[in-house]
Structures are given as structure tokens and as C-alpha cells.
Design a protein that fits this description.
This protein is an alpha/beta fold. The protein has one domain: Rossmann fold. The protein contains 5 helices and 5 strands, in the order βαβαβαβαβα. It has a 5-stranded parallel sheet, with helices on both faces.
Length: about 130
């Protein structure tokens, strides 16, 4: 999947983080969909068909880890890059054991995120039936 073909979904409850990531990823040539919550992502995920998901760990209502668990349980195969401002070893370990592509602590270097997105979209599979 090339950058211009890949849609990166960003799920973070912080508007400034969503906007910053959207600008960064668009400047790198990706299509970007942003979501303020796990619920919003789930409501529109089938239409978005992202190449990867940049997902905040700590969000109100449903955490990023719970969203990831729901996606895995539902057979939704999408590479996930977790981002967090309050990461710890146990959370990172849980995310990686569950199949996360990457786990980044905020603030992270833009180039580190872009490399993680590049690797995640490269391993992304097209939606079934494509």
C-alpha cells in the first residue's frame, strides 16, 4: 500500500493532538481520518477502511486498549500504533502482546511516528473483497 493509497485513522480525545497528527500525516502524503473517541471510530470504521490506526491509550468512555481488543475480537485486521502521555511498561507490554505495531510515548519525534506509520501501512492488508 503506497502512502497515497493508505488512510491513517487517528483516534485521540485531544483536538490539538488530532489536528497536529493530521497535518503531519497529510504533509507526508497520507490520507487521514480523525476521530474524537473509540465510539466515533467504530461508527465510521467500516467506511474509512484505514491502512493503520494511530490510537491514544487513555480516552474517556473506552480506552484505546479496549478498542483494540474489540477490533481483534471482531476480526478487524488493522495495524495499530498506540500513543500515550502516561505510558508504563505494563501497558506497553499488554498492547504489544495484543498485536500492536508500535507503542509510542508522548511527546514523540515526528520521524519516529512517520516510520511507524510507514511500516504499519506496508503490512496492512486490503479490505476483504477488494
Amino acid at each position: 500500500m503506497t502512502r497515497s493509497e493508505a488512510t491513517v485513522a487517528v483516534v485521540d480525545d485531544d483536538l490539538s493532538v488530532r489536528r497536529g497528527l493530521e497535518r503531519l500525516l497529510m504533509a507526508a502524503g497520507y490520507r487521514v481520518e480523525t476521530f474524537a473517541s473509540a465510539r466515533e471510530f467504530l461508527a465510521r470504521a467500516a467506511a474509512a477502511r484505514p491502512g493503520c490506526l494511530v490510537l491514544d491509550v487513555s480516552m474517556p468512555s473506552q480506552s484505546g486498549l479496549h478498542l483494540h481488543d474489540a477490533l481483534v475480537a471482531g476480526g478487524y485486521d488493522i495495524p495499530v500504533i498506540f500513543i500515550t502521555g502516561a505510558g508504563d511498561v505494563a501497558t506497553a507490554s499488554r498492547a504489544m502482546k495484543a498485536g500492536a505495531a508500535e507503542f509510542l510515548s508522548k511527546p514523540f519525534d515526528d520521524e519516529v511516528l512517520l516510520r511507524a506509520v510507514e511500516h504499519a501501512t506496508a503490512r496492512s492488508r486490503p479490505p476483504r473483497g477488494s
